[in-house]
Amino acid sequence: MTTIIDVAQKAGVSFKTVSRVLNGEPGVRERTRKKVLDAAQLLDYKVNHSARSLRSRSPTLVGLLFDNPSRSYTHDLQLGALTGCQGAGFSLVVQSGVSNDAIDAIAKRNGLVGIIIGAPQADSLPLVQRLEAHGIPLVRIATQLPIGETHHISVDERAAARDATEHLLDLGHTNIGIINGPSNQHMATLRFQGFQDAFSDRGLMYDDRFTETGGFDFASGMQIAERYLTADKRPTAIFAANDDMASGCLAAAYKLDIRVPDDLSVVGFDDSPIATVVYPSLTTIRQSTTEMTEMGVKLLDQIRRGQVPHTREHISPHILVQRDSTAPPPKS
Question: Which CDD domains match (predicted)?
């Protein structure tokens, strides 16, 4: 079946633009509107009218709430939500920002099936409690932290980080630095524990000098990597807890004329689009934010139908994707 994503790719526009055109929303250039409609006709795209007809009789609106600096993450989040909504016959409302007014505004929308919360707000107890007070089903993405009666979807963060670190150890690295995410984010705590697990499982010790926390952004990854790589005995490998920070490591290495992977190996986390755009391409942990968010919409649909899953924790698979940023350590 042709999807809205297929139409977007054919027309050469974003999936959000296609959604606006198909919903008859204003503010789209006529040339762009024609490209979208031509692509939809060429691909024989059909709107799910039977699902849409249910809107007058039951809730059909899904809210997506996030405030994240990573463009790649928020893109994947919205793509998964839109794909899930298309399959269920729902409409999507997006709220970027988490002020109390914004939270209340999205919670009071008519016809709301439920709300999906992206990271890092998925770990916010005050935010979740405020939304729960409205009596709305919630699904939290990329967190293993249980809060209230909400459902949450994530990879096994600790096991995934252990796999990333073990990959570097298997290559022969022992002097490995980590650039972790903020300590107030539960996923960052689990990823650091996985890093520690990989060392303790082999009876090894890591160097405390190379265990800093960044902001899950390119700039902090670059700044911390520069400190690591100008130390007296610099690490031969760095595990960065997301791809944005790992890309910052590559930039720092380039600035300091340190070759990756000949002189330094770098591993990221997420397998976001930036992982294959940078050079060298990143070895990373693949977790599909898109698939997790799509699953979140399906969970809300099940809850709406009274088919509440027995468990509130839902684990999504992860894999280590090996690319060009890792190699054995340089010979001394």
Answer: HTH_LacI, PBP1_SalR
**CATH superfamily of domain region 4-155+289-315:** Response regulator (3.40.50.2300)
Which residues are 65's β-sheet partners?
A: 95, 117
pTM of the model: 0.77
Q: Following CA atoms 117, 121, 124, 127 in sequence, which dihedral angle do they give, to the nearest 10 degrees? A: -60
Cα of first residue to Cα of last residue in the chain, in angstroms, is 56
Q: What percent of the chain has pLDDT over 70?
A: 94
- Any idea which of 12-21, 204-213, 226-235 has the lowest mean pLDDT? 12-21
For residue 79, which of 3, 157, 156, 160 has the smallest C-alpha distance?
A: 3
User: Strand, helix or coil at 209?
Assistant: helix
Neighbour-count burial of 2, counting CB atoms closer than 10 A to its CB (0-12 exposed, 13-18 middle, 19+ buried)? middle
DSSP annotation of 279: S
- CATH class of residue range 157-287: alpha beta
